[in-house]
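Q: Structure tokens for this one, please.
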Amino acid sequence: MNSRDIDSPITLSIAAVERDTGIGKDTLRVWERRYGFPVPGRDANDERTYPIAQVEKLRIIKRLMDQGHRPGRIVAQSMDALQHLSRCEASLQSNQPIGAAVTREDLTAYITQLQTQDHEGIRRELLKALSQDGLQKFLTNVVAPLTALVGETWARGDLAVHEEHLYTECVSSLMRQAIAAIPKPARGGEPVVLLTTFPQEAHGLGLLMVESLLTLQGCRCVSLGTQTPVRDIAQAAIAHGADVVALSFSLNMNSNHVVDGLTELNALLPSAVEVWAGGSAPVLRRRHIERVVVLHDLVSISEAVKHWRRLHTTAQSKVAAT
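A: Here is the predicted structure, written as tokens:
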């Protein structure tokens, strides 16, 4: 659902809108009375029906709410204002000036392929870039900026959800293949890193990017995939003898879920286990969380690994000297 079908005559029932947006029926009715939006029509049975344009606006509202915005401040705003606010959030998380667009022709060509449903073409071009650049440059020069561009294009309403999912699946499958081809390090002397996300975080692309770079750095990675309960993360870390738990948080992750989850996880983990948190969740940059190493970008991943090795080598030297 995007700007290409915004004028569609199709309407959705309130149950369908709840499924599509994640906003409950009761909340939709309250907003209708309190803020004057949404403004549903009525079908032959006098049931609420919602035009596609209003559903699209509700989806952006939900995304902004997940980033910490209060409904009272955004529900009544125009679609243009909401899209601008969404672009501002994307610019903040990518450290780009507000309104700055990625204009590399090779990246915008990928967007065109997504919009024309050319799944074979986008996979072919991504594989070509991976083969030419190698995994690390592919991640930093293509995947990272292209993922930001995909998010920005969706925020403008120029990319549908299924097109965004197609991109994620193409990139994810290529990265999994590349990770599997990296020689595994010998046991001993390298950090064991457990990777996952909290239950509220379903996005796994950032997690795969981190796993790729950690594997290139010689780490032994154990990935649980996405949406693992906090207590299970702690249990898995202990069971696998993990030195580090690495977590990924997307832009949509609720700030309270991030802080509360990390605080609970630290209380459950042995003190020797480090927690690394990366991704575009704004709270990671705005708040200090005890015992959590924040990976601000892809470059900081290698710095975190180097720091762990220095500490580990120092600790081993002290043990050997006693």
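A few notes: The domain at 192-321 is CATH 3.40.50.280 (Rossmann fold). The radius of gyration is 22 Å.
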